[in-house]
Amino acid sequence: MKALVLEEKGKLSLRDFPLEQHLGPGDVRIAIRTVGVCGSDVHYYTHGKIGPFVVEEPMILGHEAAGVVLEIGSEVTHLKVGDRVCMEPGLPDPTSRASKLGIYNVDPSVRFWATPPVHGCLTPEVVHPAAFTYKLPAHVSFAEGAMVEPFAIGMQSALRARIQPGDIAVVTGAGPIGMMTALAALAGGCAKVYIADLAQPKLDIIGAYEGIETINIRDRPVADVIAETTDGWGADVVFECSGAAPAVLGLPALARPGGAVVLVGMPVDPVPVDVVGLQAKELRVETVFRYANIYDRAIALIAAGKVDLTPLISATLPFADSIAAFDRAVEARETDVKIQIEMPSR
Ligand SMILES: [Zn+2]
Q: Which residues are close to ligand 1, an ion, with C-beta < 5 A?
């Protein structure tokens, strides 16, 4: 089967790739239809590693996917052949201590698609555990199904924040995850979500949603705008989605006394934190790493029409043009949010 293979840092090829695809009793075989290109895939392409994860041998990329069930294992009951599905790319050890606690996203033994040495899903067929495969309602497209993975991170962030109806939220950083977080916060009950960035095209895309206000930090500091709109009180919840050191340092100034700060963005290197600033308002600090037990909720919100992710799909390229799709993602155009790759249907 053909696959999009990261041969080594900076070198992609679309070629035949032998993959062990044994269908166990709890597995399903899936024909991949749509795969989103993620910042992490692009980072492995351009840098060959993320933190301790280093690409040491050829690896198939892609982890944000939707497809159709082709075959089910003998013990699978909740899915059938022909079901349209999306897949959770991280597989924990179900008997691990973390899994038993319900926090399988931080199971040290989790195997995650397209995180070395685990192959991703940019190939026509994959075998996946049915327990981590979710049925899509008929009116939810494959493109939307492939958006569930990044949206799940926004959902995890909103859940961590423990939003209460009518909260005011601020999101620093309008990358794909910042946008997903803003939409999840809004769907989760926020009255208004402010989102700050310095790229106006990104702000224009997310600002088109009702309930989301944008702040271009080239024009005005976020803290000034939030102070002005909240009579100096601050936001109930602040989501840091930029990973930028000044944004992390400035978090306490944005939150109200007793509010919450959620660290979503991942700084490449350690960054300073204003501990006293956090203490002086008794802010609750939460962190987010991927997600656990989120897919059902994310799909339910999309299916209910409460969240529309389709405006965030900027371009769709055929599988044959996968390398071009990645090269466009590397360009990081300010008008691009999510680029998707589509497999030929069969
Ligand atoms: Zn992703």
A: 38
The CATH number covering residue 265 comes to 3.40.50.720
Q: Give the sheet arrangement for strand 59-60, strand by strand.
A: 11-16, 2-8, 59-60
How far, in Å, from the CA of 91 to the mean position of ligand 1?
15
9 and 97 within one domain: yes
Domain check: are 52 and 138 in the same one? Answer: yes
Whether residues 96 and 199 fall in one domain? no
CB atoms within 10 A of CB 21: 12
Residue 299 near residue 323 (C-beta atoms within 8 A): no
Among residues 106, 266, 301, 291, which one has the least CA distance to residue 185?
301
Domain shared by 10 and 123, yes or no: yes
pTM, whole model, 2 decimals? 0.97
Per-residue pLDDT tens digits for 199-209? 999 999 999 99
19-71 residue pLDDT tens: 888 999 999 999 999 999 999 999 999 999 998 899 999 999 999 999 999 99
- Residue 63's domain spans which residues? 2-147+309-342
When pLDDT is averaged across residues 161-172 and rounded to a whole number, the result is 98
Tokens representing 236? 């109930």
Distance between Cα 306 and ligand 1 center (Å): 22
Residues 15 and 115 in one domain: yes
Ligand 1 centroid vs 333 CA: distance in angstroms? 18
Structure tokens at 234: 């601050």
What are the b/e assignments for 225-260, b being 16+ CB within 10 Å? Answer: bbbebbeeebbbbbbbbbbbeebbebbbbbbbeebb
Residue 314 structure tokens: 């900027």
User: Hey, CA dihedral for 29, 32, 35, 41, is it positive or negative?
Assistant: positive
**Residue 219 burial (CB < 10 Å; 0-12/13-18/19+)?**
exposed
What's the CATH code of the domain at 141?
Answer: 3.90.180.10
Q: How many Å lie between the centroid of ligand 1 and the Cα of residue 88?
A: 11
120 and 29 assigned to the same domain: yes
